TrEMBL record, chain A:
Origin: domain of life: Eukaryota
The name this protein goes by in its record: Cell cycle checkpoint protein RAD17
Location in the cell: Nucleus
InterPro entries registered for this protein in UniProt: Checkpoint_prot_Rad17_Rad24, P-loop_NTPase
Record keywords: ATP-binding, Cell cycle, DNA damage, Nucleotide-binding, Nucleus
One GO term (biological process): DNA repair
Span list, region Disordered: 1-39
UniProt source species: Pristionchus pacificus (Parasitic nematode worm)
Sequence similarity: Belongs to the rad17/RAD24 family.
Polar residues composition-biased segments: 29-39
GO terms of molecular function: ATP binding
Pfam families: Rad17 (PF03215)
GO CC term, one of those recorded: nucleus
UniProtKB/TrEMBL annotation, chain B:
Organism: Pristionchus pacificus
Annotated localization: Nucleus
UniProt cross-references to CDD domains, sorted A to Z: AAA, HLD_clamp_RFC
Identification of the protein by name: Replication factor C subunit 2
GO molecular function: ATP binding; ATP hydrolysis activity; DNA binding
Sequence similarity: Belongs to the activator 1 small subunits family.
Main location per the UniProt record: nucleus
Length: 488, 326
């Protein structure tokens, strides 16, 4: 079924989703080629949820979306934002189908520049009173002219029901929908906000298990591994699972993508094992060092090989070293390691020449960590140690959970700063977002000095409550939960 | 110079570009995966990431050929970084291609290859997401890039990632020897080692350097290779580091001054320094890590515009101090 695209306003009615690439409709419309081999039926075909019972989503989120959809028209504007593959579009499609709500989706038209068609679309009332307009792709001009977009939002008549269903992008601030729908704008215009979160690993595993069915040879451990690679993204998990079911173990994903192999690389660095035997050329070189105490036996692995063949993002690898080093490195030399990390983070971080300078950063961090993490005969005393993802990832997730609805979150979103300050997200202490300061909407009253507040460390969660008073807004900062302080 | 035979003017990188997945050297596991794709069809959208010259473009085309057979001409479109790939191109050119009807066997799709996709603007990538969704029934995308994390997440979410590693020296050597034999190249072993050093795992560079040396000097030995590649000789650099370790600042500086006088730019010199330093086995571990750090810092300055002999001299002097200070 081709989507009809009229030149000016391009809408299709009802379930106009092409996202689930191999969805049911694709099968129904049957592109004539009868598939004979079982393997060429992609699994998503049979698993694209058609009823809300089959939806893989947190029941709380699901009911939030359902509640919004079930509101009597006009419902106003909803910004539904979440990472790719967190089930946003599918939820809207399935729920609006079940609730028999007519959906018109904006499908980009060809000439957007100086074109009002997007505005026309937002201003038009869907064909029946109860229907909704859906925007899943914003015109490019929106991102370039923010004030204009906000003006457009302001001009939308109150009789509308519109969903902006957009993927959050951490890699690009420019495209990030949170830049368009700031908490302030949403508050100001009464836009409802629902954010979906990445799926938990256990959740993805369960979802895949249902898809794979009982008659597959795919073990639970394997599913968990796929879930970890997918990193909260259900769409990605299903793509990998599909390959796994068709091509068997080992061909579905890259070994290097597996978290185990990343842990393995980090493990090598932080364990800093030295070889049993030291080659004579190594010994000869070490003899050239004046300070005898600083001579070392040969490492157990080739540093260049590990650094150059590492398919991991160097920032990620370094952040692992940063978080796990304190467990391994003697306290007396830890500062040397952190010094190297700090250098890699500041000086050696040249964004537009990353290909070159990432190598310097990695070399410096890995070699310093290896060198200073040296204790004679330390091998035996080191016990088993479980690697975890950097704490800050977890922290951000926790924060999202803690912030109650309708309270403006001052738990500065990762998106605001990861772009510009590379290791910032790993520091635990998050900077207040400049976004808030740049809005002249109100004054900030810090009940506690910023320095004191920072000193409380990474587990501090700060919430704010908005108090409207005489036309300006004040933020009242409330501390919660400071019991948990033993991080490292 | 006058009448070169036609075959001699073809760059070897093109002449010896493998046509089949089977002929691609290295990355066995990854190639194995692609072979499965080629055999069974129903390929997902792909992101192919890896360093330059490791065979990414080559293997996507090989995959396309094996998947599409005689249809490959009409059913496969490549856009690379030299093409204009702004938003409008993504909209129009790709759309037009995606809409063309081509009858393909079951489980086969039209393919759009976007080479060096990480150099596309974010806006163009965003537009691509829309196109990818819209034509998912008939068309698959293969995005080649150096770093997959430069592709925006909504695209990453829709693709299976296929990763390539830098080719090892052994793998490169294998291919170089094959090509050398087919072209009747006269070489010695040191010459090939020099090629490997200058190419740093980039097969395209290796083949180019080989061909240039042959056409410039006929015989491939280390000296000729470094002359052709216009790179400081690594053995000079190694001697310089040994002098740094021994604290002989005068001798170490001489090397740098000489290279500078010979016309190498500070960036060339520092690049060679880095490459030599990390593999040189005559530097004690502690000094090596400090050297690498200082070279990095100096390199940043050079990139920022302080491309002067003073910076290099400062670096050398600093390195000469380190053993004393250890
Ligand atoms: N793995 C390989 N096996 C054989 N030849 C290769 C390999 N990788 C690269 N080459 C050679 O190098 C040239 C460039 O390879 P290409 O696939 O364009 O690299 P890139 O990874 O940059 O796309 C090819 O023409 C081919 O001759
Ligand atoms: Mg290429």
């Amino acid at each position: 079924m081709m989507v009809t695209t009229r030149k000016k306003r391009s809408t299709t009615v009802s379930d106009a989703f092409n996202d689930d690439s191999t969805g049911k409709r694709a099968k129904r419309s049957g592109t004539s080629t009868k598939t004979t081999q079982a393997e060429s039926v992609t699994i998503e075909c049979d698993t694209t949820p058609m009823t809300s019972n089959d939806l893989h989503m947190h029941s709380r989120k699901l009911s939030e979306i359902r509640n919004w959809l079930s509101k009597p028209a006009p419902r106003g504007i909803l910004s539904l934002i979440g990472p790719p593959g967190s089930g946003k579009s599918t939820a809207v499609r399935v729920l609006s189908h079940e609730l028999k709500i007519l959906t018109s989706e904006w499908l980009e038209c060809d000439h957007e520049i100086e074109d009002d068609s997007f505005a026309d679309f937002l201003h038009c009332r869907p064909s029946t009173r109860t229907g909704i307009l859906l925007v899943r792709h914003l015109p490019q001009s929106t991102y370039n002219d923010l004030p204009k977009f906000h003006e457009l939002l302001r001009s939308i008549p109150s009789s509308s029901s519109i969903i902006f269903c957009l993927p959050s992008t951490q890699s690009s601030w420019h495209l990030n929908p949170t830049r368009l729908f700031t908490p302030m704008i949403c508050l100001d215009l009464g836009i409802s906000q629902i954010t979906t979160n990445p799926f938990a690993t256990t959740f993805l595993t369960k979802a895949m298990k249902r898809v794979a069915g009982n008659n597959s040879d795919c073990r639970d451990a394997e599913l968990t591994e796929i879930a970890k690679i997918a990193d909260g993204d259900l769409r990605k998990a299903l793509i990998i699972l599909n390959l796994r079911l068709r091509f068997g173990k080992g061909n579905a994903y890259d070994k290097a993508d597996s978290p185990i192999s990343l842990f393995h690389a980090v493990g090598r660095i932080v364990y800093a094992k030295r070889a049993e035997k030291t080659s004579s050329s190594w010994k000869e070189a070490e003899r050239l060092l004046n300070n005898e105490r600083m001579r070392r036996p040969q490492p157990d692995f080739d540093v260049n090989l590990l650094v150059e063949e590492s398919p991991y993002d160097s920032q990620k690898l370094i952040s692992f070293v940063f978080e796990h080093s304190p467990r391994f490195t003697p306290m007396s030399s830890l500062h040397k390691v952190f010094d190297a990390i700090s250098l890699s983070d500041s000086t050696l971080h040249v964004w537009n020449r990353r290909d070159v300078f990432d190598q310097y950063a990695l070399q410096t961090v890995v070699r310093n960590s290896l060198f200073y993490n040296y204790q004679e005969n330390a091998g035996e005393s080191r016990c088993k140690y479980a690697f975890t993802n950097p704490l800050s990832d977890q922290l951000v997730k926790e924060m999202r959970k803690l912030v109650p609805e309708n309270e403006v979150s001052m738990c500065w979103r990762k998106e605001y700063y990861t772009e510009t300050v590379p290791m910032m997200s790993r520091m635990g202490i998050l900077p207040p977002s400049m976004e808030y300061f740049s809005h002249n909407l109100g004054s900030f009253i810090w009940l506690k000095g910023l320095d004191q507040w920072k000193a409380q460390g990474s587990h501090q969660i700060v919430k704010t409550r908005v108090v409207e008073e005489e036309g300006h807004v004040e933020f009242d900062i409330v501390d919660t939960d400071d019991s948990d302080t033993d991080s490292f | 110079m006058a009448d070169l035979k036609n075959s001699e003017t073809i760059p070897w990188v093109e002449k010896y570009r493998p046509m089949l997945l089977n002929d691609i050297v290295g990355n066995e596991h990854t190639i194995e995966r692609l072979k499965h794709f080629a055999k069974h069809g129903n390929v997902p959208n792909l992101i192919i990431s890896g360093p330059p010259g490791c065979g990414k473009t080559t293997s996507i085309w090989a995959l396309a050929r094996e998947l599409l057979g005689k249809h490959v001409k009409e059913a496969c479109l490549e856009l690379n970084a030299s093409d204009d790939r702004g938003i409008d191109v993504v909209r129009n050119k790709i759309k037009t291609f995606a809409q063309t009807r081509v009858t393909l066997p079951a489980g086969r799709h039209k393919m759009i290859i976007l080479d060096e996709a990480d150099s596309m603007t974010e806006g163009a990538q965003q537009a691509l997401r829309k196109t990818m969704e819209g034509y998912s029934k008939t068309t698959r995308f293969a995005l080649a890039c150096n770093q997959s994390d430069k592709i925006i997440e909504p695209l990453q979410s829709r693709c299976a990632i296929v990763r390539y590693m830098k080719l090892s020296d052994a793998e490169m050597l294998l291919r170089l020897q094959e090509v050398a034999a087919m072209e009747n190249v006269q070489y010695d072993d040191e010459g090939l080692v020099a090629i490997l050093f200058t190419a740093q795992g980039d097969m395209r560079q290796a083949l180019n350097n080989l061909q240039c040396t042959v056409s410039g000097y006929g015989y491939v030995n280390a000296e000729n290779v470094y002359k052709v590649c216009d790179e400081p000789h690594p053995s000079m650099m190694e001697d310089m580091f040994v002098n740094c370790v021994k604290g002989k600042v005068r001798e170490a500086s001489e090397t740098i001054h000489l290279l500078y006088r010979l016309g190498y730019s500070p960036e060339d010199i520092i690049n060679t320094m880095f490459r030599v330093c990390k593999v040189c086995d005559k530097i004690p571990e502690l000094l090596k890590l400090e050297f690498l750090r200082e070279i990095g810092i100096c390199h940043v300055r050079i990139v920022e515009g302080l491309s002067t002999l003073v910076q290099l001299s400062g670096l050398v002097a600093k390195m000469c101090m380190m053993n004393e200070a250890s």
